[in-house]
Design goal:
Bound molecules: beta-D-mannopyranose
Strand content: 15-25%
Structural class: alpha/beta
Number of helices: 11
Largest sheet: 8 strands, parallel, barrel
Number of strands: 15
Length: about 400
């Protein structure tokens, strides 16, 4: 199934046949009305400085505009699973490793939906979805930004996101054997995000970041496992289905690659300006030592310069959608490496990956300091930089108003 869309320049009230429909208070100037139909997608033209969803709720439009406005003020610091657990603790009300170290929360909170699609009560990293919803609501009430990633299982084989079985993407496109199944999976996402509401019953805006690192080949949607056209179709189907069929209007859509060599490589699978709100990439440092540090600073500077130039040209929001140096083997990494790589670029936010801590497999995984960790003092210096923004500074901006 796909979609048939009509464009109109006036505010539209689509049939209200579902109880949990989002509020229709987006600006609605150029609304997209879509019906179930054969398998073509009719893009809704992008409008400068508006989300791609022309029925986006008021709060979602405000978030979009404020993310752009804040580019002038500085870069927001974000952390994956920040409120759920840290190194040596789990689900302690109000706790955060970033807060333990700096006295303030991050400004951006990442959460992960993997395994929601298989009706699990907990995500692939064992975070209960109910708990996640509570934490998202608390982050929103505090004035923070929320972003969701989705390491969804392989819908063809039932194995993990890391199972790159050939033909998976093709199988879930309209006309494919697994398209119905994929729609059911998308229903779980729609239901989840429509259950996120603030105190006035308004939907909580979310930056949704599906199919991340799509120029790598470790996930089933990766570069070696589908053509650019297939990925484009998957992206458009996903956005259309959530936005137009399920009428989810509290999402901004983030497109992101892994490291990239050129702008051409970055854009090879970009679905077009009608389908993307935020443009980003993920980057990790793996090698230690002076030379590796210098290389990382230079890589980060080159990719961020390219990202900002592409996003500016396309009028999108640039962000470093994931980063990290596992277990932080360098005490001054924050000021001597990371800050040097990002400070001259106008990007919206940077999202440090999760502090999983000591894992069952005897490995340690964390990307931001915790209390007493060796790079904590250096992180405080980074925190004190005028242009790094944490929760208190962003709360003042009232980004949803
Ligand atoms: C990876 C690691 C894994 C985790 C996955 C999804 O980078 O952190 O431990 O399961 O992300 O969050």
């Amino acid at each position: 199934m796909s979609l048939f869309c009509l464009l109109t320049t006036s505010t539209i009230n689509p049939p209200l046949n579902e109880e949990r429909l989002p509020l229709r208070e987006g600006n609605g100037k150029m609304a997209n009305l879509c019906f179930s139909a054969p398998d073509k997608f009719f893009p809704v033209p992008a409008v400068d400085d508006m989300p791609i969803d022309h029925l986006a709720t008021k709060e979602t439009v405000n978030l979009y505009k404020n993310l752009k406005k804040l580019l002038k003020k500085g870069v927001m610091f974000g952390h994956q699973d920040d409120l759920a657990y840290g190194v040596g603790w789990k689900y302690e009300a109000g706790r955060s490793d970033i807060k333990d170290v700096t006295g303030d929360y991050p400004a951006v909170y990442g959460f992960e939906l993997g395994h929601l699609e298989i009706d699990s009560q907990i995500n692939l990293d064992s975070v209960p979805f109910n708990k996640m919803k509570e934490l998202i609501r608390s982050a929103y009430e505090r004035g923070g930004v929320i972003t969701l990633s989705w390491h969804l299982n392989n819908p063809l084989t039932g194995k993990s996101a890391w199972d790159p079985a050939p033909g998976t993407v093709k199988s879930i496109l309209p006309g494919g054997d697994k398209n119905d199944k994929y729609q059911v999976w998308l229903n779980t996402v729609a239901e989840f995000v429509l259950d996120l509401k603030g105190s006035r019953n308004e939907y909580i805006p979310i930056i949704f970041r599906p199919f991340h690192e799509l120029n790598g080949s470790w996930f089933w949607w990766g570069k070696n496992h589908c053509t650019p056209e297939e990925l484009n179709q998957l992206w458009k189907f996903t956005v259309s289905y959530l936005r137009d069929t399920k009428r989810v209007h509290n999402l901004l859509y983030a497109f992101n690659t892994d490291r990239f060599a050129t702008k051409e490589e970055y854009l090879e699978r970009y679905p077009g300006n009608e389908w993307v709100d935020v443009m980003g990439f993920d980057i990790y440092q793996r090698a230690t030592g002076e030379q590796a540090n210098a290389q990382f600073v230079s890589d980060l500077n080159r990719m961020l310069a390219d990202l900002v130039s592409m996003a500016t040209e396309k009028k999108k929001i640039p962000a470093l959608t994931e980063f990290g140096f596992n277990a932080l083997p360098d005490n001054t990494w924050w000021t001597k490496v990371f800050w040097k790589g990002i400070q001259s670029h106008k990007i919206s936010y940077v999202l440090g990956w999760r502090n999983a801590g000591f894992k069952a497999n005897n490995r340690t995984e964390y990307y931001v300091p915790y209390k007493g960790e060796a790079s904590a003092a250096d992180f405080v210096k980074f925190f004190n930089e005028e242009k790094t923004l944490f929760q208190k500074e962003v709360t003042k901006e009232k980004i949803y108003k």
